[in-house]
Amino acid sequence: MGMVYADIELINAAEKEMAKRHIIGSEEIKSIRVNMLVDSGAYMMAINETICQQLNLSSKGKRKAQMADSSVVEYDVVGPIEVRFKNRDTVCNALVLPGDCEPLLGAIPMEEMDVLIHPLRQELIVNPEHPNYAQLKMK
Question: pLDDT exceeding 70 applies to what percent of the chain?
């Protein structure tokens, strides 16, 4: 199977909450559409520094991550970020990769949105067993 990409909308969830409380106007909520690599082998979502700056995300600390070559690298963690794909959404944190590295949609936000990789079509799809809503597993 080749690499799978999906158009994902990312929204600064903290600003969305501030707008809900009428602290800022809804036009001030930062959002961006990003073509992300869908990587079910990565746990968390990862964005790059450019996306982080465009969304004006706050640092929540640092976290170490083991890379594909087994090296361990420490990254900033930012959030909260609302992630939207078709009729699905979730809120999560993200690791910040340096520069303009390719952003990744990892397994945790995929599970929370109940989306799947369709291997034949090589695309991200909503779970056909639950086309109208996300259904999580609790067992």
Answer: 99
